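Re: beginner question about structure tokens

> Can someone show what the tokenized structure looks like for a real chain? I only ever see the sequence side.

Sure, here's an example I had lying around. Input first:
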Amino acid sequence: MAAQRTNGRLSRVRRSHRAAAILHDAYGSPHHGNKEDPLDELVFILLSQMTTHHSFNRVFERVKAFATTWDEVLRMRARTFKALIKDAGLSGQKGPRIRAILSRLQADFGSVTLEPLKAMGDGAAEDYLLGLPGVGIKTAKCVLMYSLGRQVLPVDTHVWRLARRLGLVEEGVPYSRVHGTLEMVVAPEDRYTFHVNAIAHGRALCLPLRPRCGLCPLRRLCPSRDLGSARGGGAKGRRRPRARARAPRGRDPHMLPAQLH
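And the corresponding structure tokens:
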């Protein structure tokens, strides 16, 4: 039994490695607008949560133009900040949460910054982020991966869906365990590539209700390759797209239910 589990995991590791390479060839590991500075990235993600449009990009740029540092944001009146981020939606929740984080950083580090995380190990940095108001595991791992260059694997709704359809995680694995489970089968060097291209693939072809399996570059690898045909999606026989995928207008591609961020 133990040997079967080991063989099964090794098979999933090989499949994830091959999938990462195929997805990179198809989508080119696109940049999704994430930020190099870890605090910029954290606020950017918090602004994007639970919104069905992309105004949070404009709101983030407005905040950065209004205040040159996050210390300035913390010193401004709460109602001023709330008005600045109103277009991102739920400003009554996001405003106090972001300001509480900025206040916590000021108390912990003497300045409103996440730069000290660069000197921490992955586990310590992740634990610190998870201790901040409103920060969940996916958000913490996004900050670690995009802004701190750590070999972690954030699991958003697209990554989770693709991982299940590829058989990298079982259907019954709860979200609370999916990060650890998936990181066991996606090699550290493949995690960034897998994440960013899974987002692109989830937008373009591996759709929630009508996946376009007939066009999928992962079709030969995927145990769920007939799902699209069963649901009326497929388009068999047509050429697979090689162009870079674009994000459709509408819901934030990183969106998960609020409690999962």
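Each token stands for a local structural state, so reading them left to right follows the chain. The chain is about 55% helix and 0% strand.
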